[in-house]
Amino acid sequence: MTKNVWQRIIFHCKEEFPLEACGLLSGKNGIAETIWPMENVNRSPISFSMDLDQIRRVFELIDKKHESLIGIYHSHPTAEAYPSLQDIEYNNYPEAGYLIVSLAKQTPIVKCFQMKANYVKQLSIKIVH
Ligand SMILES: [Zn+2]
Questions:
Q1: CA of residue 25 to ligand 1 center, whole Å
Q2: How far is 36 from 74, CA to CA, in rounded Å?
Q3: Domain tally, the chain
Q4: What is the mean pLDDT of the chain?
Q5: Cα 49 to the chain's mean position, in Å?
Q6: How far is the CA of 40 from the centre of ligand 1 (A)?
Q7: CATH code of the domain containing 68
């Protein structure tokens, strides 16, 4: 992902604290270049879900930019940067990188996972320009 996207993910997660923040990332060639902060309709500190109409609108905009979905992110205001059982169960985008931002410590920790069914594997995150 770009440095700008990285910084804006963390900014959005801090802004929503103590609630969970969530959003989508799009780009080309596997590089996330655009961040789409989404509304957490649960307004909860321990869960998130996105509004289907907002998702539809954002996917149209991603198409218009000739980008594709690269990742999905959300924050864990007080928990570590690891998918919860609900995260694993309700992941609708198994092809996208699954980013979790933990705000449990002073310095935010961001980790990316590949999640399919019950399979969780940590991926490395590369920051470009
Ligand atoms: Zn979670």
A1: 16
A2: 12
A3: 1
A4: 96
A5: 11
A6: 12
A7: 3.40.140.10
- Classify residue 129: in a domain, yes or no: no
Q: What pLDDT digit, counting tens, does each position of 82-126 carry?
A: 999 999 999 989 999 999 999 999 999 999 999 987 789 999 999
Residue 47 CA to ligand 1 center (angstroms) comes to 6
Distance 75 CA to ligand 1 centre (A): 7
Ligand 1 centre to CA of 32 (Å) is 20
Residue 90 located in a structural domain: yes
- Containing structural domain, residue 11: 3-123
Beta strands in 39-108 (DSSP E): 68-76, 97-102
d(CA 77, CA 19): 7
Cα 101 to ligand 1 centre (Å) = 9
